[in-house]
Amino acid sequence: MDGGFYLVDLPGYGFAKAARDTRRGLAALVREYLERRETVAGVVWLLDVRREPSPDDLAVAALLEQRRLPLLVAVTKADKFGRGRRLERTREILEAVGVPEDQCVVTSVLTRDGIEDLRESVLAFVSGEARPRSDSSGG
Predict the structure, then answer these.
(1) pLDDT at 134
(2) Which of 60, 66, 82, 84 is the most buried (most CB within 10 A)?
(3) pLDDT for 72-91, tens place per residue?
(4) Which fold has domain 42-127?
(5) Measured distance CA(111)–CA(71) in Å, rounded
């Protein structure tokens, strides 16, 4: 973008309408990219508020913790729940993947909730303002 950075959209591996072997291949591709690509400045990880983190999600969470990459979780489809349930689900998801609440933006494309915060957070990654993940205590 503007010659300064690239946004790389990796394929989804969880609930894609694809055969199990294809999903496994996508998960392996994502893991390999995150493990080997030294120029990754940060990760924006989209997790659906309606879904429990999968075993593949938990493996990616461990890899991201190991790499200590700046991380932002974008919890998507926030419009699917009322405010109370949305907050509860967001906390459950973040706890499962070991990410603190200050590294999360709850979003909805339909209502535009969180979209501006997400944009600003992505720009913080590329400007070097994003902070790496802290110690393994999840904080």
Answers:
(1) 46
(2) 60
(3) 999 999 999 999 999 999 99
(4) Rossmann fold (3.40.50)
(5) 24
